[in-house]
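Task 17 of the worksheet. Students: predict the tertiary structure of the chain below and write it out as structure tokens. Keep your answer in the requested format; marks are given for formatting as well as content.
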Amino acid sequence: MRPHRAITRLRSGLLDEVRTLVGAVVPRPPGVPEHWVPSHGDLNPWNLRRARTGDWLIDWEDAGWAPPGTDEVYFSATSATLRRGAVQPLPIAPEHREAAARLAAWVAARPVRDRIGAQLQILLSNGSVE
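Model answer:
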């Protein structure tokens, strides 16, 4: 029996909990734009686990401050890599365009050595509006 499984849908309130936790332990660095919010930085299905004892979010080394929507956009993009079929660019809500652009630049700067990295480049490749 597996001790936990990946979560592919965010439960209500999780993003607020993450922002509260990160904000409590990671001070806002000087020069960070005022509208940026605390962020896990690597919120994806394989870092979010459900166990009998509750949900677990692991891999916190990228926690910090980021444009609003960063965790939501990244979770949506990484979740899409787990689905079968062709990968299409994600529709990005206007309020998340800055987050998507920052994530797209981050993904583009990484050496693409795997299927997920290549798919993330496609998913984050445009800023179309939902």
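Marker's comment: Helices lie at 14-25, 70-80, 97-109, 115-123. The chain is about 35% helix and 10% strand.
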